[in-house]
Amino acid sequence: MANSQYEYVKSYEIPDPLMPNTFAVIRVDGHAFTKFCHAHEFEKPNDIRALDLMNRAAKAVMHEFPDIVMAFGESDEYSFLMRRDASVYGRRRSKINSTVASIFTSNYVFYWSEFFPKTPLKYPPTFDSRVVLYPSPKEVRDYFSWRQVDTHINNLHNTCYWALRHDGVSGTEATKLLEGTFSDDKNELLFSRFQVNYNNLPAYFKKGSVLVRTDPRLTKGPSQRDAECTEAADPSGSTTAVPSESGPSLPGSDPATTKKKEKKKKAPKPFDGRSGPTVILHTDIIKEQPFWAERPWLLE
Ligand code: ATP
Ligand code: ATP
Ligand code: MG
Ligand code: MG
Ligand code: MG
Ligand code: MG
């Protein structure tokens, strides 16, 4: 199309690329979700339907962005880690930031009725979003540790608060009772007053959710291994997928030709986390083992 006399205004759109070779974390957070939860009668302290819906929306974001190799979700927020060599959208910050928030929000609404079949949406939920750049793996690790420590602190507090509320204690009184208490006091309160051992609560609530892709070459294939599987919640347990003993042999394939073909094959590209089935884990992401040690590509 011919240039018009007005086109010069385009030059006011200043390029905003993310600094090269830096890790980007995009975090979305529900806007005024305290009110949204109340309006939609979320179960307290943890409504699993809402957490599952958050995970579904996060999965959609990862589907759209192969360069997002990991996501961590808790409460009404989700953090997405983008590889430092990502070149998507020319690394334009506002394009990436706004697209992530938009995909997340539209999927949250799109899948709402699947997770809340009996609760119609009263008004459209919205999410804000920001991008933060980190220069090295240390800051990325510390970022995710920060979010998971937050998950634990909030969950312990909310578990106590709602145990008291469900026991007939008023909001003001419950807040007062918990004021100035430490973790040990809260654990003791749960145990002595409610016979609840905090350690036995689901890892889903205590540790939040992590989405990562697994190397398809290490899985038994999508037919045997559900691409949407939720892996073990045991933080101490290894989460590496077990390689199948031998590759699938095609019916009628001649062993001699197969050998020839194998010779020609180049060395396989190392897994970079951009492809493969997405799995949901409820595991420790503060310690090195096993999560980070098993997935060196996340910090490449
Ligand atoms: P802002 O717009 O500043 O983010 P907010 O009201 O969303 O305000 P947050 O700090 O983000 O404040 O807190 C989110 C609120 O939503 C918390 O009260 C949290 O307990 C609640 N919430 C989020 N997810 C769930 C869930 N799955 N089940 C129960 N409550 C939830
Ligand atoms: P990008 O993601 O880069 O924006 P795009 O496919 O959305 O890619 P645009 O330049 O934004 O590309 O163009 C929008 C397209 O949608 C055009 O082809 C336009 O004709 C079409 N379109 C938008 N609104 C309407 C409409 N109301 N009726 C018919 N076509 C429409
Ligand atoms: Mg916020
Ligand atoms: Mg919020
Ligand atoms: Mg929040
Ligand atoms: Mg467009």
From TrEMBL:
Catalytic EC class: transferase
GO molecular function terms attached to this record: GTP binding; magnesium ion binding; tRNA guanylyltransferase activity
Protein name: tRNA(His) guanylyltransferase
Function: Adds a GMP to the 5'-end of tRNA(His) after transcription and RNase P cleavage.
Catalytic activity: a 5'-end ribonucleotide-tRNA(His) + GTP + ATP + H2O = a 5'-end phospho-guanosine-ribonucleotide-tRNA(His) + AMP + 2 diphosphate + H(+)
Cofactor remark: Binds 2 magnesium ions per subunit.
Binding site residues for Mg(2+) 1: D29, G30, D76
Stretch list, region Disordered: 216-280
One Pfam match: Thg1C
Basic and acidic residues biased stretches: 216-228
Domain Thg1 C-terminal: 138-287
Keyword field: GTP-binding, Magnesium, Metal-binding, Nucleotide-binding, Nucleotidyltransferase, Transferase, tRNA processing
EC number: 2.7.7.79
Residues given in the record as Mg(2+) 2 binding sites: D29, D76
Gene Ontology biological-process annotations: tRNA modification
